[in-house]
Amino acid sequence: MAKAQRSFVCQTCGAVYPKWAGRCEDCGAWNSIVEEASTRNTTAAAGGKAQGRRLDLVSLEGRMAPPPRLPSGIEELDRVLGGGIVPGAVLLIGGDPGIGKSTLMLQAAAALADGGREVVYVSGEESVDQIRLRALRLGLAGSPVRLASATSVGDILATVDHAKAPALVIVDSIQTMWVDGLEQAPGTVTQLRAAAQGLIRFAKDRGSALMLIGHVTKDGQIAGPRVLEHMVDAVLYFEGERGHQFRILRAVKNRFGPANEIGVFEMADAGLVPVPNPSALFLADREDGVAGAAVFAGMEGSRPLLVEIQALVAPSGLATPRRAVVGWDGNRLAMLLAVLEARCGLVMSTRDVYLNVAGGLRVQEPAADLAVAAAIVSSELGRPAPRASVFFGEVGLAGEVRAVGHIEARLKEARKLGFERAVMPRTGKDRPAGLAGDELARLADLVGLMGGGPLQRPRKLAG
């Protein structure tokens, strides 16, 4: 028999404590532990034997057909999901407020509904009239999407949990949902877990795809316990700045496709428009012959992507020089500056360094080291990078340039966009026709390569 007890639960990570504490020992968050009511199985707690049925164990051998897919009607969204929406899959979509989560979900709902699928859109934050106004603005008012405004999970399940369940159910947002019988307020760990479990059980039993929109914290993580991300099949994050026209949808977890795949969208008057060739769009405003800029040939999932990296190196009047980074790892920048000073003789300890990845994209792969170094060296020496060149390669602490993967895809993308030269690690592989190359073994070779061309300001080397 279940017995009600009191426990103390961290609202950040979901850790449970027997008494209140000011700081969570698991995640380090302060003032996040809240007293909640819980139920506990007294038989299990007393060491009794749990009752259950015997499981049928099978071997690893066997043939399985790939899961069926529902095309969402949005090419970039299908790319991120691995080819489309899998029936019965549960997706969690997070992002900053106003970045376009609800807009994209409404566009996907309308596209599926126009294709003859039944789609239900439930909002716990907006009224039905507000959703209709957005649909009117996006030109989707004629789509047969079923709308509702509700926050009770019991009411939602009573509406959609039947033999002819909808093909897709969208819940906006999971933090506003609550389960009857629990004392906690919506958004707490207990309510989030119970609401998600009820909705996920419905999706798995009925074969309906479920999309949950989630709030994010100031750190950019989906609000609530991390167990919420473990419960779903795919976790998608919206990236980008409100001031930029680009939006990046990234899959950080996907049980039915590759992780770290991205889709690129452009915010327009008619909503989020898929960008089929994001490299050309990211480089549209690039200027040749400017010191402090280099083009990085990167990989996002299975897609090659070219993006401009900009650096500004200036004398510092501070005891501790300033390091400002947008779109890259600040710790990796500190490491790269140390390598440039220790292995290449460039004075970085008295310089302010500002680094920016143009277009609002966040670059995560180590292959960007060489492009970042090229932008920094170009700004420090006052010399533009070699014309029509792309850079990629990982830099080690000894100053060596290490090989990276997907070299052929990077070079083909660069050649397709009209670049004529690739600065890269030594590989011994053939390059596409019409594309010259400089294969570097040491980071010091990059400094020598950047020494050509007219000076825009004096070169400053140690010693």
From TrEMBL:
It comes from the Bacteria. SUPFAM superfamilies: P-loop containing nucleoside triphosphate hydrolases, Ribosomal protein S5 domain 2-like. Residues 352-463 are annotated as: Lon-protease-like. ATP binds at G95, D96, P97, G98, I99, G100, K101, S102. Residues 66-216 form the RecA family profile domain. Gene3D superfamilies: 3.30.230.10, P-loop containing nucleotide triphosphate hydrolases. Keywords: ATP-binding, DNA damage, DNA repair, DNA-binding, Hydrolase, Metal-binding, Nucleotide-binding, Stress response, Zinc, Zinc-finger. A motif (RadA KNRFG motif) lies at residues 253-257. Pfam families: AAA_25, ChlI, Zn_ribbon_LapB. The middle region has homology to RecA with ATPase motifs including the RadA KNRFG motif, while the C-terminus is homologous to Lon protease. DNA-dependent ATPase involved in processing of recombination intermediates, plays a role in repairing DNA breaks. Stimulates the branch migration of RecA-mediated strand transfer reactions, allowing the 3' invading strand to extend heteroduplex DNA faster. Binds ssDNA in the presence of ADP but not other nucleotides, has ATPase activity that is stimulated by ssDNA and various branched DNA structures, but inhibited by SSB. Does not have RecA's homology-searching function. Plays a role in repairing double-strand DNA breaks, probably involving stabilizing or processing branched DNA or blocked replication forks. PANTHER family: DNA REPAIR PROTEIN RADA, DNA REPAIR PROTEIN RADA-LIKE PROTEIN. HAMAP family: RadA_bact. Belongs to the RecA family. RadA subfamily. This is DNA repair protein RadA. The gene is radA.
